[in-house]
Amino acid sequence: MAETRLFPDRPINVCVTGAAGQIAYSLLPLIAGGKVFGRHQPVSLRLLEIEAALPSLEGVVMELEDCAFPLLHSVFITSDAREAFRSCDVAVLLGAFPRKQGMERKDLLEKNAGIFKEQGEALNFEAAANVRVIVVGNPANTNAYVLKHFAPNVPEKNITALTRLDQNRAVSLVARKLGVPLSKVSDIYIWGNHSSTQYPDVLHGSVEGKGKLSDLLDKSYLEENFIPTIQKRGAAVIAARKMSSAMSAANAVCDHLHDWLLGSDSIVSMSVASDGSYGIERGTIFSFPLRCSRGGNYEIVKELQLDDFSQRYIKITAEELYAEKAEALALLS
Ligand code: NAX
């Protein structure tokens, strides 16, 4: 059966910020090549960069042209956030202020809160009414929270942050540890903040034909090895590559958007505004396990039982997020 298009009579308008950066360099071909929004959905790209990076972005546009993607309808570049977000259906927010040597965490939060306040206001006025937003730039959950605060016209459910990379890392590590194909591993979730307090949860997972992960992996392995490895994986990539994750981040953005907009049979992890589930303060942008259905709808999975082990980890990451969001809003006021 022919795949139906998300927008049957027009291209989907996709804004990508930080478009001259390294994640964008891996992500733009996935978007323009049909991997994210489907093999039949034409795409118009609206690319935002700071003024100083526009010459470099022009080179990226040349490469997009030279890829000759049949689905790529148009590319528009700008350093003006309001122009970039105009009528966009999807906004992928990669651009953020990088942490520099000697910079305090508070300064990083403040710089980024300023960027995401401005971008929230621009989205609020310019984007399509049902725009779907994914924040990737760090601190991603708190940046998404700030954005949501300054974009009251955007439905709260439509503002998300990326934790799919953490889920993919966790699934891959379990498959390697148990020596099983990745496709046999299911139901591994990420709870909380995209930071070193996140909780990669295998206790609801299983391996097809082998049984429950709670029987296959003991808690001392989880506590001493698995959880810290996933929590610190980003730092390990930086130590090895001298640059942060880009290919795997772009792949995860692709998975996140694809499953959100086109639906998925699996439960997936995304950071979304809490509705109070599992005792998490309403509105906090927190990673939960979700069920996504075609058209951009999702529900937080409600029926999971969390044991003391899981609750202990979830409390730590929730408290970090409450402190971050209070700090970011205080810095802005
Ligand atoms: P790069 O430094 O390569 O690119 C970022 C780009 O954003 C730069 O070209 C910069 O000029 C641009 N930019 C900065 N401020 C901007 C603004 N106000 N408006 C528009 N563009 C702006 O970083 P890259 O490796 O692409 O990573 C992007 C962000 O993703 C970083 O904040 C990074 O920490 C974060 N990550 C988040 C991950 C997640 O899972 N949530 C994983 C990967 C990544 O570490």
TrEMBL record:
Lineage: superkingdom: Eukaryota
Lactate/malate dehydrogenase N-terminal domain sequence ranges: 13-159
Residues the entry annotates as binding NAD(+): N112, V136, G137, N138
Entries under PROSITE patterns matching the protein: MDH
Enzyme Commission (EC) number: 1.1.1.37
GO molecular function, one term: L-malate dehydrogenase (NAD+) activity
Annotated catalysed reactions: (S)-malate + NAD(+) = oxaloacetate + NADH + H(+)
Homology family: Belongs to the LDH/MDH superfamily. MDH type 2 family.
Protein's recorded name: Malate dehydrogenase
Protein species of origin: Galdieria partita
